[in-house]
Records
---
Amino acid sequence: TIISTLESSLSKKQMLKGKRILISAGPTQEKIDPVRYFTNHSSGKMGYAIAEVAAQLGAQVTLVSGPVSLETPPNVNRIDVTTAAEMYQVINSHFEDSEIIIKAAAVADYRPKQTVDQKMKKKDGELSITLERTNDILQSLGDHKTNQYLVGFAAETHDVLEFGTEKLKKKNLDAIVINDLTKPGAGFGVDTNEVTLLTRTEKKFTFPVASKKQIAQQILNEVAIDLGEQGK
Amino acid sequence: TIISTLESSLSKKQMLKGKRILISAGPTQEKIDPVRYFTNHSSGKMGYAIAEVAAQLGAQVTLVSGPVSLETPPNVNRIDVTTAAEMYQVINSHFEDSEIIIKAAAVADYRPKQTVDQKMKKKDGELSITLERTNDILQSLGDHKTNQYLVGFAAETHDVLEFGTEKLKKKNLDAIVINDLTKPGAGFGVDTNEVTLLTRTEKKFTFPVASKKQIAQQILNEVAIDLGEQGK
């Protein structure tokens, strides 16, 4: 098949041999009290698939992972975090030393402004919770990057291409992987995905529904080519 | 050992033979938008252990489960739900036909008052979310029960015995299993537990740290005895 041919030719080429790649995956959990928290539906599968394939292509992979129930892929250095603040800290500490950064994690945009150390007792009536913004990791990486190749993700439910294109520019990315969460074989939880890859150099690839591992191969193939063309 | 002797004598006796038991387990997820939600740290392990042991003791077990990554125990009829509202509905529809109800699920007390069908875009600054109370399933069961034997759980971080005793009375329970979440071998996520069981008949049992399956055996043993003493 085309995919297995692609897989074997990529592996043979070791297209990412020796490259230091930093990948983030999974959701974050933002604590309200010792029992309750905010989170999102990211399963981590897409980021883990990218980490697995990147390692097969010869890269030195560091995977910063939110709480997921997935096994660490072979030859991948995994660092577990829980909150957006921890994710920010770990990614920042590895950023300078990385050549490619792929931010597949679905980091919480908001966290409760106040958290309590004892379980809240419920009361009659409504309850209002104030949320504050977490640090925008991708924006921060885009603002501070020097020679790094930075890939973001956009998971949207409407106007996906428009949002994705805008995000690519606003966050100073080199490429963005755009997911339409409303498509049945795409997005969170499922084992398949269907994405559009846009590059800063205005290349646009549409990868039809395939396993997340196959999508990972296609993404990394185009990233490696784009990187090569920029002489990085 | 004491435990394996207990296990074998319980299994031999089939202490719950033919009893219709309804067990709830796991957390619920309360949607904010298609990506974000509130939840809690319940893993479902305690409820699943009770379902497994109850089936071994000959009971007809229906397990109403929130989203967990656990396998269904043998001979257990499992019904999956996501939200507190779904949990309420499924439990209500099985309640009349059940002889024993064990509510081990950690059902959300609050849900977002408004949910949106498109992913919210983040904005600068703080965000306030209004939460409303979900139905209190245990209170409703306690208020409406006729001949059913009703067991609740109390998972607390402080004044655990006081809260548990109060909950037993207020919710009109026959027994309550009290967890101290601050103890290292107890509560959410871990494979062990350490609980106090109180009955309406003022029996009090303290089960030291053991596997959740062993704790399940001890709870069901005392429930079966208490039930027998009441001629149910």
---
Amino acid sequence: MQVTVPERFAHLVEHFPKLPILVQPSGRPWDDRMAKTTFFVPDYMSGRAGVANLAKMPALEVVQILSAGVDNVRDAIPNGVTLCNAKGVHDAATAEMAVTLTLASLRGLGRFRDLQREARWDNQSFSSLADRNVLVIGYGSIGAAIEQRLNGFEAQITRVARVGRVTPVVYGFDELDELIPKADIIILIVPLTQQTKGMVNEHFLERMHDGALLVNVARGAVVDTQALIRTLATGRIAAALDVTDPEPLPSTSPLWQMENCLITPHVGGDTDAFHRRAEQLLTRNIDRYTKGLPLLNVINGEY
Amino acid sequence: MQVTVPERFAHLVEHFPKLPILVQPSGRPWDDRMAKTTFFVPDYMSGRAGVANLAKMPALEVVQILSAGVDNVRDAIPNGVTLCNAKGVHDAATAEMAVTLTLASLRGLGRFRDLQREARWDNQSFSSLADRNVLVIGYGSIGAAIEQRLNGFEAQITRVARVGRVTPVVYGFDELDELIPKADIIILIVPLTQQTKGMVNEHFLERMHDGALLVNVARGAVVDTQALIRTLATGRIAAALDVTDPEPLPSTSPLWQMENCLITPHVGGDTDAFHRRAEQLLTRNIDRYTKGLPLLNVINGEY
């Protein structure tokens, strides 16, 4: 039994004095001591590189990643190895970013920041979140956390998930065609799967009404980037994106220069709120692992 | 009886078919028909100019302003004329702006907007609102609306008002010295009065802890601008300001260029949410006026 964790969680060692824990300094790609790893925690946001050496860990039993989405690591997990995600850890920070982008976009913060750079006091009237219809697409734990934050803003919230249900009312993907035209704001927080890849295509965007706002805090590839660029170029809708396809967004992408597009570089989950919550999850799951108990957040099939 | 309203509320005429309502086009300073006004509604954000001609209205009985703060019009109201403010009308939009500025400042939206202008994808970790202590100074209707919006964000909220009370727990101004050092975020939404003018002075700012954030959606003069500039120059705290002293903020003000200062040009209350709510207030108060009922939002003494 050997647990290998990234440097930022070095003090987990103190929680488990009897457990062999290898702390891997960030930026070091391979260390022969890692070969004995049975429970592996790739660094946060390390993507494909973080799981590049799993084949060199013959005793590997568990990979515990620190992101909620598993799309970019899933096919790198060897057969028989359990994959756990960080469901819940990023709820607070990512949901907060969804609301931040929504508010900043609606209330013209991008425009006002540009004016600030020119030292210009030029008040312009923008739209409120109050009285708006918000469609939250992806009603998992982050979707629920987004709803919790939106609750105080006098907006109407409609929930959508892969499969609809009645309590609380969640609509299914198959009802999107009717829901999209009614939404003033659409927030995307679905996992990236075969079903959701390119979900926001030309047809989806055409159904959004004039002046509507698309907020993506899911994965860039949930949106067809070329279709989004074409639609934004008409000025008909606006977008606020914490994720893009590809990432990093190339400096040549027209999205950067569009007045109706606000971009943050995939920082939704990366705040000080992450560290405390990630440490709680790691402590709980390593503890369960050492005791042979069922692990939390095991990824099985669709998620 | 003659009601004079700004052009943007022209369709109030339809609500009161039997009432003489004069619609005043914006930008026209004086129209002799205004002399008969008994119930006057200066245009929103018209400030001193909006109440410059009250002495030419000998029959004037009521001035209904469309802002919550009365500081800049109060001494222009003739003796015997009733002043009503727009308490409640701006709660949604202004509270929303308080949260928008808080989130945008914490989550680095200003920095990311600057990076967007350079087409640079450069992820940096910022602070979450989650887990923070927020001090809301000014617990009137907008203060309560701010709290309502903050409720979903996993932050701790402490309320302060002129006079403390127990249910719900609201601390008094006299307890600020002890509360300020504990706050990660301080949101100002007090009215501008003799007591609150310059309330945020050198002493107040010194008590804020390193890395704390000051958000002002009240009035610029609640903060001692020079003291704020000196404090921000140290980089010790950050600020997000929708109001400044003076307004407009001169292009020579160092605040514009400070990395730890986010500025919007007094647009907190000015959204489409305002129009619907202002129309409701005007309809109710004009109706009460025509029926001789007590008016809503009459300003008497401290407010």
